[in-house]
Amino acid sequence: MITVEDVHFSYGGREVLRGVSLTLDQEILALVGPNGSGKTTLAKHLNGLLKPTRGRVLVDGMDTREHTVAELSRKVGYVFQNPEHMFFEETVFKEVAFGPKNLGLSEAEVEERVRWALGAVGLGGFEERTPYSLSGGEKQRLAIACVLAMRPKYLVLDEPTTGLDWKAERSVVEVIKSLRERGHGILLITHDMDLVLELADRVVLLRGGRKVFDGPVEDFFALNLEEYGLEKPEVLLLAERLNVGFVRTVDEIVRRVRP
Ligand SMILES: Nc1ncnc2c1ncn2[C@@H]1O[C@H](COP(=O)(O)OP(=O)(O)OP(=O)(O)O)[C@@H](O)[C@H]1O
């Protein structure tokens, strides 16, 4: 489990996290909130990229202040927004192999991990392509594969579907679902409320560096979201009109109105 305990953080003299606590277990936790509310800053605390000015973060009991990013990255993989800036190898294979090689694994083990990670994100057969030649959705999946090859227990995904077309978004969503099924804990940063509805088990809402909500996805969508500048998914507006209770999909609505 990852435990964030009363974390404060300042850039220069400006405090942008003001006492945030949360836990992440084997689940999809959506981290939402307006621009500038501190989501990315908080997420960077999970693998030690940032260390709290006050409070602490424990990753399976390891205090992030006492461990390097390299050590913590074995447990917590971080997929950045706009991952194309991350790629520097000539081929997809080498790109994914980079992390496991640095772990000092044998060539056979590295190869096994690369094949597994590329398969997991549906990029088997792309090994010899240049990362730059991939489409936006393929780049996003390559970034996830690079992190998966390190076999981290937890993953932070920062806006993983932003800018993707429908088909590319669907394949990234399927990857995220399969990661949860494999028992990973996932922190998903997103502004997309449809994605939250589809994927999240739990939601944490930040505003002005403070946590203003932490609970099951159903309770989150019962909030007055407009107050936080967030829009309720249409599926839920329709479910409310039809008085069928909380649903995640149109199919569920149909089943409830026509039993
Ligand atoms: N490197 C930095 N130096 C100084 N201030 C920063 C830095 N990074 C972020 N900030 C500030 O910290 C606050 C929180 O930023 P952060 O990126 O964590 O918010 P966010 O919720 O992820 O926003 P968004 O939804 O726009 O991605 C913002 O006011 C931002 O301007």
What does this structure look like?
Strand 4 (54-59) and strand 5 form a beta hairpin. Helix 5 (136-148) runs parallel beside helix 6 (166-181). This protein has ten helices and ten strands. The chain is globular, with a radius of gyration of 19 Å. The mean pLDDT is 92. It has a six-stranded mixed sheet. It has 259 residues and is of the alpha/beta class. The structure holds adenosine-5'-triphosphate. Keywords: ATP-binding, Cell membrane, Membrane, Nucleotide-binding, Translocase, Transport. Its main location: membrane. This is ABC transporter ATP-binding protein. Belongs to the ABC transporter superfamily.
Write the layout of secondary structure elements.
Layout: E1 2-11, E2 14-24, E3 28-32, H1 39-43, E4 54-59, E5 62-63, H2 69-73, E6 76-79, H3 92-102, H4 107-120, H5 136-148, E7 154-158, H6 166-181, E8 185-189, H7 193-199, E9 202-207, E10 210-216, H8 217-220, H9 234-242, H10 250-257
Parallel strand pairs: 3-8, 3-9, 6-7, 7-8
Antiparallel strand pairs: 1-2, 1-4, 4-5, 9-10
Helix pairs in contact: 3-4, 3-5, 4-5, 5-6
